[in-house]
Each structure stands twice: as C-alpha cells, then as structure tokens.
Fold:
Amino acid sequence: MEEAKMADQVAKKPVVIILDMAKGYGWEPGSFGYDMVAKVRQLKDAAHAAKVQVIHVNSMRRPTDNLPGQPSMMVGSDNLNVIPELQPVNEDIIIYKRFLSGFSHNDLDYTLRTMGCDTVLIAGASTDNTVLWTAGDAHQYRYRVVIVEDCTMVHREKEPPGAKECALRIIRSVLGGEVLPLKEVTAKYLKAT
Structure:
C-alpha cells in the first residue's frame, strides 16, 4: 500500500544514476551489449537538457580487498574512468561503490539527500545485479525508483534467458518501482527547461 502511494506522488527532484559504465567493464564498439551505450548517452543528454543531475557510480577495488584473481577496477587505474561515449563528465558527479549496490559503502545516499532528491532514474549494468541491488537500497532509503528499461542490460553474454525480466519483475512487484522505456522516462521526468 505504501509503495503504491509513493508511485502516485509527483517527482519533485529526480536524479539520474548511471551504474558501471566504466572502461574496466569492456564497453568497446562491437562488444556484447555495446548497443545500449547510445541509449544511455541519450538519457544523459536529456537529463542535462532538463537540468537534472547525473551521477555515475562505478565499482572500485583496492589491493587490500584480498579478492581472488586480478580485479580490473583497481584504485588509480584508467579502468575506473567513465567510458569515452559518456564524456564529458564535468557536469556530473562520480561516486565509487565497494560492492554490488550503488549505495554500497559510499556517500550516494548523503549526496542525493543534500540535493533534495526524491526519485532515482537508474540506468546501466547489470540489470540482475547492480541495478537490482541499487533499486532495492534506493527503495529502502525511501526514494521513488524508476528503471530506464532500455538503458539497462544483463552484461554477461552467457546468461540464462529471462534474467533481465526476472530482475525487472522484482523491481516492479516487490519494490513498487516503475520500469519504463527511455522515451517515457524523458517525457515524464526529464522535460527540458
């Protein structure tokens, strides 16, 4: 019931959150999922035109994390940088997460609250991982959750069919979030000023 009330409220201050669109994730022309990058660029441009803040949230690892293998998102590496297709980022905020959720061990919630944000428009990868965990935390922090459906994807080529839709179903039914295509998000939340 409370989730339905939140969905019915008018968004006063949306913020776009773009997840894991960093060089270290292999976003190269021709790579699996690369076609989504152009849509995310359209989202970012629409946000700027509407004077809506864009926040990039990328993973970051340290040598002291004691993770198996050789983590690619190591502090100080070029892999942490936002991909060239989403540059420049001089108007954007960049925050690093330490685990799955965009809210994981950082100041994302504080940053959103000090801006007066009430609605997060979430894009990026991976729908069944970082997008889902970030949506869950945003919901628990009492933000309205909106997933930009065609600006998210499961960023693993060998994923079982339906993984994205299962994650989106959880966001819709459990979190009470909206799942909308970019065109509808732009019309509803990113009207140019």
Notes: Residues 2-189 form a domain with the Rossmann fold fold (CATH 3.40.50.850).
